[in-house]
Amino acid sequence: MSNGNSNGGRLEQQFANLGISNQGSGRPTAGRYVPPHLRGHPSPLQPRRGNGWHQRNESAAAAVDWNNRRTSFPRADTWGGSRSEMSYSSPQRSGGGGWNDRASSQSDRWNAGYRQNFSGGRGGYGRGSFQEDFSNNSRRDDGYGSWRDGTHIIAQRNQRIERDLFGAPDDPERQHTGINFEKYDDIPVEASGNNVPQCVSQFSSPPLDTHLLINIELAHYTTPTPVQKYSIPIVSAGRDLMACAQTGSGKTGGFLFPILSELFKKGPSPPPQEQPGYSRGMSRSRKAYPAGLILAPTRELASQIYEEARKFAYRSWVRPCVVYGGADISGQLRQIDRGCDLLTATPGRLVDLIERGRVSLSQTRYLVLDEADRMLDMGFEPQIRRIVEQEDMPDVKSRQTLMFSATFPRDIQILARDFLEDYVFLSVGRVGSTSENITQKIEYVEDEDKRSVLLDILHSQPETERGLTLIFVETKRMADMLSDFLINSNFPATSIHGDRSQRERERALESFRTGRTPIMVATAVAARGLDIPNVTHVINYDLPTDIDDYVHRIGRTGRAGNVGISTAFFNRGNKGIVRELIDLLKEANQEIPQWLETVARETSGFGGGRGRGGGGSRGRGQNRDYRKFGGNNNDRGNYGGGNE
């Protein structure tokens, strides 16, 4: 177990190994666009030169020299020129600032590579009859097994696929035990409900399937997080679950591990006999019958969950699939045709596919609502209720439902009442609070001084602590303006917001993840759910008006037990959240500036800033099982309000 300084000290060396060539294949690639759920798969296509980043010197091209920052990156007027290390293509400036992530990409050429790499049958329902074995690895080795005659047929191991999915065994980026991981044992956990199963202390069989344990080991997961220690036995016991946990606490594994384990053990359900076009040769119109459905609020989070599902479904009969809006639906339909056992989707795109008759939920045994509070914030409740209550999904007694949320406002409590039955309520840590692993700094900065203070902070970061820096602003226009400003100040930066196209957003995220542009300016579109390793510093250039949004923003660092730094620019325009901000700092044992308490006293009696949960101090009530406080699960009044 290393300390915080040693962890930060490795970042500079890690940056030297980061680059566009380090995608697991060992070969340099150009800036050809590849969607997130297809990355890591080899493509036979040769990218055009002059389109994105090229490596002129493979041994040095990806190195990020922070020691000589002002000369390591070209100024805006040299983007189109060639340099000894790299060449940059001229970015498209219409969408705002960016460090070459907006270079034009080859339109949809990934589809051809995708079809070639994933053609053929699959396990489970892949083609033809239900009991057929589709794991012909001599003909097609795609990393998936099959289910035959009631037996789970595990596919052969494939070193190339394992390297693509899990990375090299000694890759520090693939480690999932944070430097403060052991402190998780001290986090308070509340599990309430009828006959709550006993928690586990390690990944073991039972309750987990032995093949899943192999994949967990390949992913370098060694110790379950608190939410996983409780969710694994709860879900394995067939119980519904409402889980509230701090962001970055391993919630994705908390539902993927037990669901995949049960699917491995029980196999697929037979498809309905009345399904038309299910026989061989009718794949173009085949309807998917996923056994598990995961709903997520954003395209980025859906892709992230899908990537994790691919890892842990490796060599099994379960074929994950992802669909989301803002992308070409034809490619997603082709992926569905190849098999869809565990579907991750955004609500709007799923409704579209249901209306097209391409997805049926009649065989869905597991329903997961991830970032449920965020989905309601984004206005997805009508689509969610249609999917769950008005389509062909089994009723609450015939399916298992899991809800994961970082906060527990009244509308989430109502949703839990409607969608879950006899559920276990799990609260890990203080719901709506921040991790003590994050050092929070509040600076008083007037609006006109923000740019100069930001440059001072970026220049003053110690050499051993330079990881990825995520900067949050409130408007799309500010995201582009600030990104341009940083680029012109010789800081490699990109931006992400709702007005950028799906391709631009995915290219920006990939460039940020790999460290090619280690500074990203973002609006709320990236504030929730994204798990980006090595985000060591989050800067709230503009503070949000809702304290819950602040919690989720700074939760991009300090994830899975690692340490991080959060800096917030505060002025009197942010007085609406000052009291809750002080409460938050106290809960996380952070230093509270004296001037901040002065502002709080000046604004005593000032209304607002209470977030979605209404009045009262944070941490009181929002992490409680509301069934304990009067009435039963059928009375809407028990959830904080009367009839609407």
UniProtKB/TrEMBL annotation:
Keywords: ATP-binding, Helicase, Hydrolase, Initiation factor, Nucleotide-binding, Protein biosynthesis, RNA-binding. The keyword Coiled coil does not apply. A motif (Q motif) lies at residues 201-229. It holds the Pfam family DEAD. SUPFAM superfamilies: P-loop containing nucleoside triphosphate hydrolases. Residues 232-426 form the Helicase ATP-binding domain. Gene3D superfamilies: P-loop containing nucleotide triphosphate hydrolases. Residues 201-229 form the DEAD-box RNA helicase Q domain. Its EC number is 3.6.4.13. Residues 20-147, 603-644 are annotated as: Disordered. Belongs to the DEAD box helicase family. DDX3/DED1 subfamily. PANTHER family: ATP-DEPENDENT RNA HELICASE DBP3. This is RNA helicase. The lineage of its organism: Eukaryota, Fungi, Fungi incertae sedis, Mucoromycota, Glomeromycotina.
